Amino acid sequence: MVGPGTLSFWWKVSSETNYDFLRFYVGGVEVGRISGETGWGQTNFSIGTGTQTLRWAYTKDGYTTMGQDAGWVDQVSFVSNVTATVITDVASLPAPWQTADIGNVGLAGSASVSNDLYTVSGSGTISGTTDNFRIVYQPLSGDGEITVRINSVQNTSASGCIGVIIRESLLSGSEYAFMGISPDGTFRWQLRSQTGGLTSSTTASIVTPPNSWVRLVRMGDTFSGFGSSDGTTWTQLSSNNITMASSIYIGLAVASGSSNTLNTATFTITTVVP
User: Fold this and answer.
1) Does pTM top 0.85 for this prediction?
2) Residue 46: pLDDT over 90
3) Integer Cα distance of 74 and 194 in angstroms
């Protein structure tokens, strides 16, 4: 993990009090421990600057066993304190669209439009606790949706993401919902439900651009993703609750799946509401 930031997690232990411990280490140094019979409790630790190794360990004194003789950790999250500078480009896109690289990409992306065909190139990934990719975006206030046709995509990596996205912010660890395809044509639904949290994903059938359409809808805190092979008959891949602010961002996303490779995809935007 790269600091600085704040680490949060829940933990509990069932052990011999004051002899057997669930311990937490940062960079090899013990910074917290619990012992005895405890219920679930949330705790927070400040993580220093730079790469830090985190470790949880259950240790015994070797004499007496009490309780379940175990410790548990759950719901680990990290909120970075690093301030990101997002450089946007509006010259090649019609208002209100803007474009930028999110996070620390290996290769800079780009975006342009000609005859309503959007060409977007991006490296990186949308995964884990932070993202690195190219976004074409505009502000969204309240409910909204975006529907696009993916006309072409390069088959760079199965872990790539090409499609539509709604993000709470332009920081790399932002909450988000994504609906699109992998470079091999597999429909992909992804989300991060809390800032700095892990990404979860669902995949479905394979389509072949240009016969691929995707739609992403926000209604309150409910985000839903849909896919289609003809733009008429739609299948909902998933729907999840994500608590986001009212004023957020909506648009296109391209991540090649690799920091040293660009993926160039083309889109036709059929609907943006509002």
Assistant:
1) no
2) no
3) 14
